[in-house]
Amino acid sequence: MTDNGTTSPARGTTAGWPAAWELLLPARMPVRGRGRALQTALREAVRSGRLAAGTALPSSRELAADLGVSRGVVTGAYEQLVAEGYLTGRQGAGTWVAQGAPAAAGAATTLFSEDDRGGPLDLRPGLPDLSLFPRAAWSAAHRRVVARLPHRAFGYPDPRGLPVLRAALAELLSRRRGVAADPDLLMVTSGVAQAHTLLGLVLHDRGERAVAIEDPGSPEHRGLLAATGLTAVPVPVDGEGLDVAALAAARVRAAIVTPSHQFPAGVAYSARRRAELVAWARETDALVVEDDYDGDFRYDRAPVGALQGLEPGQVAYTGSVSKSLAPGLRLGWLVAPAEILAAAAVRKRTMDLGNPVTEQAVLAEFVAGGHYDRQLRRCQRLYRQRRDALVAAFAAHLPGARVEGIAAGLHAIVTLPERYGPPARLLAAAAAAGLRLRPLSDYRFAASDRAPKDAGAVSLVVGYAHLTPEALTAAVRLLAAAARDAA
Ligand SMILES: Cc1ncc(COP(=O)(O)O)c(C=O)c1O
């Protein structure tokens, strides 16, 4: 078993199957031609890579019972696919996907833009564990929603989002994050990224030309601002959050911040800094854009509420399902003061006329039915274990390494003392060992701060949520070996 509760697709194991079968096979077998339908579904699942080589199939008896077909239909389909080279099996020993089974040309590689992202040696931040996506619950909600939606729901949606989803999200955000969320002041977006793009366009329309961002900070923030014609002005972050005196000196009227878990430095804004930031926004009538990208996950205490709750009139709150469910869903939200929200809705209309209706309705059902809370609890438990495993692995294999930042989110900052080699050499040795690592310096905006150093300690931004404790330990061991080479 992996620590996410699923069975790794190893030969001879079938436990953990039912959820996956629901997706691989037709929801309802046709009355006629059942054997052929099953063969087609299995063949496609193997060709597309959804069923990996070595994956064990359920026994013909189990699958027949699950699908409500006779056992002969399943054995016939298995035999046919064994003959075609997709499956392999022996009487009494089971059936599994053959090594080197025919794959659809390019299927597995063209579906993804970065196919090595999230692999066992990839410690870069940004991804949740995609294998935790609740496929069965999501697809069940999808089936219910598609069956239930009235015809008119498939027309052009309200660009601000489905009312039922806005109501569900407003309840969720006020309960979990302390957001002052009125469904009328909330809109559905394609992730935080689109929320920021919309806000950037609105600010530009209002005559702003520059927006403060955190330094170190997210390159996404700068890139999205640039796409809307705005210049990003980096403002330093210290142990308490954004330096508000430096922000005031920058003479901007908007700032993007990550107060719950600063990205990437990992600090939580202090109460004092939050109050100063809100006071600055009030005094200058500025807009604070809060990016609550991973605010649900806090492992040492209850999460601190959103900054927006302190001053809803000056703070626009943005978040998404990218860290809690999956970034591929492209579903997020924006809660903003009335005028800003109205202007953003006009922009959203001209951009894409609104998010897809079915996905919105599924998320609404998912949230209202308690599945979203369940998913967060499950991820919280596993990610905490993974963070603990990461801390233990560094203590065991790279003594003196300091894990910094609050116990939260999907990444940690780990600082390795100078004795583990000059930063540039250590990073090169790690890369040569196949590790994918991002130093904190990559997230600094001044060119001089970004250059690899010849001496001193090195801080790494380590994403851990997507890897099991075993994989994390193995990766840290590899890093320790690389550090010995570099020292
Ligand atoms: C700090 C931060 N905020 C927001 C985003 C984008 O999030 P979304 O997928 O919701 O657009 C990213 C992307 O990884 C990020 O690093």
Automatic annotation (TrEMBL):
Short name of one Pfam family: Aminotran_1_2
Transcription among keywords: yes
Domain HTH gntR-type: 32-100
The keyword Ribonucleoprotein appears for this protein: no
One term of GO molecular function: transaminase activity
Alphabetized Gene3D superfamilies for the sequence: Type I PLP-dependent aspartate aminotransferase-like (Major domain), Winged helix-like DNA-binding domain superfamily/Winged helix DNA-binding domain
Origin: domain of life: Bacteria
Keywords: Aminotransferase, DNA-binding, Pyridoxal phosphate, Transcription, Transcription regulation, Transferase
Family according to the record: In the C-terminal section; belongs to the class-I pyridoxal-phosphate-dependent aminotransferase family.
Protein name according to UniProt: PLP-dependent aminotransferase family protein
